[in-house]
Description:
Residues 43-497 form the Aldehyde dehydrogenase domain. By secondary structure, the chain is α/β, with parallel strands linked by helices. It has helices at 24-31, 62-81, 84-100, 102-113, 117-142, 176-189, 203-215, 230-239, 250-262, 285-297, 314-329, 349-364, 397-400, 416-424, 439-448, 461-465, 484-489, 513-529, and strands spanning 43-46, 53-57, 145-148, 155-163, 166-170, 193-197, 223-225, 243-247, 266-270, 275-279, 307-313, 368-371, 387-390, 407-413, 431-435, 453-456, 478-479, 492-500.
Amino acid sequence: MTSTTPVxxxxxxxxxxxxxxxxxxxxxxxxxxxxGGLHNAPIELKAPFTGLTTATxxxxxxxxVRAAFERAxxxxxxxxxxxxxxxxxxxxxxxxxxxxxxxxxxxxxxxxAGKSRLDAFDEISxxxxxAAYYGKHGPGILAPRRVAGVLPLLTKxxxxxxxxxxxxxxxxxxxxxxxxxxxxxxxxxxxxxxxxKPDNQTALSALWLHELACAAGLPPQAWQIVLGRGSQIxxxxxxxxxxxxxxGSTPTGKRLAGRIAQRLTGYSLELGGKNPMLVLPDxxxxxxxxGAVAACFSSAGxxxxxxxxxxxxxxxxxxxxxxxxxxTEALRLGGTLDYGTxxxxxxxxxxxxxxxAHVDDARAQGATVVTGGKARPDIGPLFYEPTILxxxxxxxxxxxxxxxxxxxxxxxxxxxDDAVERANxxxxxxxxxxxxxxxxxxxEIAARLRAGTVNVNExxxxxxxxxxxxxxxxxxSGVGRRNGAxxxxxxxxxxxxxxxxxxxxxxxxxxxPRIWTTLMTLGMRxxxxxxxx
Length: 533
Ligand code: NAP
């Protein structure tokens, strides 16, 4: 069904010619876990570091995707019947396996996505944190909830959370392991089964996690992975599921949402951003500059919560820009499977084109390139230097459009209210960052920013790593949230049950309605004054 092409058959095979990578046979083994692929031609994947073939992947037909949903529907009944504590145990076991076997996943993520190893490790930690959080807290969040009934002692009321059924998960290429875990694991814990379509470019990472989840006790049919272009199998992915969790760009999310809504099926959308960072006049400049490097250039800026706009107060602007540029120029670019580099490559030629176009357009419109601003084919086909721009005019594309690459524009301000207004002046609202020595002041400014997550004295990692906090976008950055209780309960149907005892909620036989309504009015006044109701 699948095969791989050794880069150089005369030497031990590596994946995509990346030195130190696992053998290609391992890639084939993982690719074989994907559903279908009997009729469509497989596709070849290229490693961003080298441009060489990593693996060939089966491509499912629409019919095969629909059949996967059918199997998932059958498997769902048995999976949902298992006690939630048993499902949680699978997640806790998976947590341990992910940490134990991280070396292989680090290789795969680097090879498929072109990240530095440290950036790949962010995905290991996010995956482990999510598995641990839901493995530990999930059963409590899903537990039946008692609520005070309308008539004290006489109305017993409670809420249950039932699984939706089969969840469709559509994932992008930029955080292939972490986003798979963040979206698939809570759906499974809630008693759903899942059919996931990862991006072809980074499918092996999702398949790796699938293998580990099965080793941790998940029935293989409970989570099925289908591969193929959205344009070919997208219909089945929006028509079959009982809930759709989509992560990707705002235009695709909007298109799919319109179609999903036609079926009155629930969905969550995790979309794009143009995330601002505010450096307040009292910020520690050195820490803010170091923080900006991580916030802007982790995963080469191909991170939905990455910072692309920095607003820095006039009084410290020069010092900040100099420190930020110095630290940026010290970053080591490279494509080796070790911790010896700081920033990897872009993931696709499309990304390289998009990033180059934004920088070239800004430059042509008069922006200053403080550092970076060019591709680095001498390192690898898709490398681009981390880039800082100043003097970006409002007409430049990079001013308001998401670049999704290692490019940030720095703007000055003299008044904090003005900076807050400019930070909020965007169609997006995903993530923001505030830097101040005064934590209380930072919190106050954070609360004024229209973004789903705001990090004070951090770029994104503080909220990203706190799995108990919901994560998602305001405005065009999304609908719904992942993580926290919301990220689990979205995969459930809420059911309210009330058992009425003794007396009905209507007048007693023969009682004049006026007396009934007077008694009820008095009762409501009393109940409203009771504590904890
Ligand atoms: P994209 O082009 O929207 O694609 C996302 C996923 O949707 C891919 O797997 C894609 O597969 C699939 N897809 C596209 N059209 C489809 C259709 N008609 N039916 C079903 N699936 C379809 O986005 P991307 O370029 O891969 O990802 C980058 C974007 O994602 C950025 O805007 C980034 O900000 C955003 N993002 C957001 C978050 C968040 O949490 N908010 C996280 C990560 C990324 P094919 O391309 O193969 O069709």
